[in-house]
Amino acid sequence: MRSAFGFRTLAVTAIVAMSAVSAFANREVTHEFRSVVPRARVRSVTIEIPIGVLQIRNGASDSIAVRGQARREYDGPQERDSRQRAVDSSSVEIEVRGDEAFIRRRFSTGAGSWASGHTKFEVAIDIPPGVDVTVEQKVGELRLDGAFGNVDIQMHVGEVHIRTPKANVRELTAGTTVGEVHTNVGDRTFDREGLFAGKTHYINEGGKSSFTVDLSIGEIHIQLTK
After folding, report:
1. Structural domain includes residue 189
2. Distance CA 66, CA 77 (A)
3. What is the pLDDT of residues 127-176, one digit of tens each?
4. How many domains are there within the chain?
């Protein structure tokens, strides 16, 4: 029968070995992209990037801009070139239709059939103040900082961080099925944690916009500033 010390030793050894394998596999190739379009008549922006790290903030009043990186892991030298070709064919585009703009991933022929599930995106998005924002994201991290119109964020798994002026928010609803919701409205805070953490609902009669954050698993952090 093994001693407790023996089990601990094996556990530590396994963790070290797994870390070494992970470090070996965690090599990445990257591709940078950038795009800017005139705002024109745009009043709302919908962002559809299923997997990634997104940063949304206010930019120039007359344009919408994205910049960032596509990233993909490779396991060894024999895979590096093919993975580089895949990320070089992966980017984010802005499509404007009348008063709506859509920000989506774009894969050209060289990206390969698995690109949509294996390519990670890190994207900074500049949106004019007052524009409505909708985010549809499956997995990742989202940071939204600035004054916008109505905001609707839907995410399955990840973290959401929001920082916006209190005067910009008329109604706020934020909830997660499993995880944490922390909301600081200036004069008080609301904290919800655990399984079926529920929703925080806040009304500010002097505000302007509606904010909705719906997360299945993860953390929501909201700060309303002066």
Report:
1. yes
2. 31
3. 999 999 999 999 999 999 999 999 999 999 999 999 999 999 999 999 99
4. 1
Higher pLDDT, 116 or 154: 154
Q: Which residues contact 224 (CB under 8 A, 6 or more apart)?
A: 164, 165, 166, 169, 172, 183, 184, 185, 186, 204
Q: What are the structure tokens assigned to 139, written together? A: 């997995």
Residues 5-30: pLDDT tens digits? 343 443 443 433 334 334 444 689 99
80 in a domain, yes or no? no
Distance CA 183, CA 192 (A): 9
Q: What is the dihedral of CA 98, 150, 107, 91, to 10 degrees?
A: 100
Query: Is 55 inside any structural domain?
Result: no
Q: Are 46 and 66 in contact (CB under 8 A)?
A: no
Q: Is residue 192 part of a domain?
A: yes
Domain limits at 175? 129-226
- Return the exposure string of 97-121: e unless at least 16 CB atoms fall within 10 Å of the residue's CB, then b: eeeebebebebeeebbeebeebbbb
Q: What is the pTM of this model?
A: 0.84
User: What pLDDT is recorded for position 26?
Assistant: 61
